[in-house]
């Protein structure tokens, strides 16, 4: 039992604690389209952290509304992934951690005390708060702690170090539902992701393609969606990465970014070698785009000394 849980029964009733007030501010901020991230400060002994496990109705309603808004933004029908279990307090705890991000050790301890995931609504609330927080400037360790407590954020972005296996398992679970499959495909197919996210997606798709046939088909679907819905940007991105890899004198960071773009097409290159007939059946996976991507992978692999 955590300190958060041990003190839950002793919270003051009749008023909202400082910790709950901070969590409510963060939930309101994550529900809006702009504004600065709330930065809560209060003497730790007066925060009332245990109250976060039993939020009042006004905070529960705001949290539920945010989860619903986020589900709609992600194109998910209610209940998300067919899971109608009620919202738990985990997202409220994470919201308080985000609000106390200027005190990283406190925020990390609070995030670490976050209860187990209670269902799909909780999954979405945590992602709504975490993804918004990750778009701001926060402590690196706290960012990874938030990812570790928000499985959907890790799946659609990247996991905290050491969380790769768990996150790939999350992805495999998500895609068993049609809405989850569509969400993963659309997210992975979208170009412009940061270097570490591209690297994770390449590794995840490499693992998934060697799973059952449905997961191999999922990986092909990602590349097909990229070339159907984002073809112009994808081709431009490949060309830019090729120019860096074959050029001279680019900064190391720019080379690493280009190599991450190249690595993304590694699973496609391996599928083409082993299952060319499956690719020929996907009419949206145009030949030119596929060749450009797999050739870029080979260039990147050669520069990195990898097998290709």
From the structure above, extract its key features.
fvmX1, elongated, FtsH ternary system domain-containing protein, 308 residues, mainly alpha
Short description:
This is FtsH ternary system domain-containing protein. By secondary structure, this protein is mostly helical.
Structural commentary:
It is built from 17 helices and no strands. The protein has helices at residues 3-6, 18-31, 57-73, 90-99, 104-112, 120-134, 140-149, 151-156, 164-174, 178-189, 195-209, 213-229, 231-246, 252-264, 266-274, 276-280, 287-304. Residues 5-13 have low confidence and may be disordered. By secondary structure, the chain is mainly alpha-helical.
Helix segment tally: 17
The percent of residues in helical segments reads 55-70%
Q: How does the major sheet shape up? A: none
Give start-end ranges of low-pLDDT stretches: 5-13
Topology pattern, helix = H, strand = E = HHHHHHHHHHHHHHHHH
Which term fits the overall shape?
elongated
> Which structural class should the secondary elements be placed in?
mainly alpha
Total beta strands = 0
- Let me know the average pLDDT: 92
Computed CA radius of gyration, to the nearest angstrom: 21 Å
Beta-strand portion reads: under 5%
N-to-C span = 50 Å
Organism: Polyangium jinanense
Protein name: FtsH ternary system domain-containing protein
Pfam families: fvmX1 (PF19998)
Domain FtsH ternary system: 51-303
């Amino acid at each position: 039992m955590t300190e958060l849980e041990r003190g839950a029964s002793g919270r003051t009733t009749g008023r909202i604690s400082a910790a709950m007030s901070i969590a409510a501010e963060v939930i309101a901020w994550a529900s809006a389209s702009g504004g600065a991230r709330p930065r809560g400060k209060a003497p730790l002994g007066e925060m009332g952290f245990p109250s976060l496990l039993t939020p009042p109705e006004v905070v529960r309603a705001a949290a539920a509304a945010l989860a619903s808004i986020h589900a709609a933004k992600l194109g998910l029908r209610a209940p998300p992934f067919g899971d109608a279990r009620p919202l738990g307090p985990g997202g409220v705890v994470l919201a308080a951690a985000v609000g106390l991000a200027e005190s990283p050790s406190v925020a990390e301890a609070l995030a670490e005390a976050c209860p187990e995931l209670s269902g799909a609504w909780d999954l979405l609330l945590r992602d709504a708060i975490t993804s918004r927080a990750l778009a701001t400037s926060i402590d690196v360790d706290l960012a990874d702690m938030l990812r570790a407590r928000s499985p959907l954020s890790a799946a659609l972005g990247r996991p905290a170090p050491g969380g790769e296996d768990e996150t790939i398992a999350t992805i495999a679970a998500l895609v068993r539902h049609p809405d989850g499959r569509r969400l993963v495909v659309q997210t992975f197919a979208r170009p412009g992701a940061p270097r570490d996210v591209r690297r994770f997606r390449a590794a995840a798709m490499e693992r998934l393609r060697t799973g059952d046939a449905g997961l191999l088909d999922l990986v092909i679907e990602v590349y097909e969606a990229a070339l159907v819905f984002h073809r112009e940007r994808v081709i431009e991105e490949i060309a830019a990465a090729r120019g860096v890899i074959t050029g001279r004198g680019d900064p190391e960071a720019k080379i690493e970014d280009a190599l991450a773009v190249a690595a993304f097409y590694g699973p496609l290159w391996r599928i083409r070698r082993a299952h060319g007939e499956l690719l020929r059946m996907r009419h949206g996976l145009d030949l030119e785009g596929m060749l450009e991507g797999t050739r870029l992978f080979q260039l990147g692999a050669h520069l990195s000394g990898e097998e290709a």
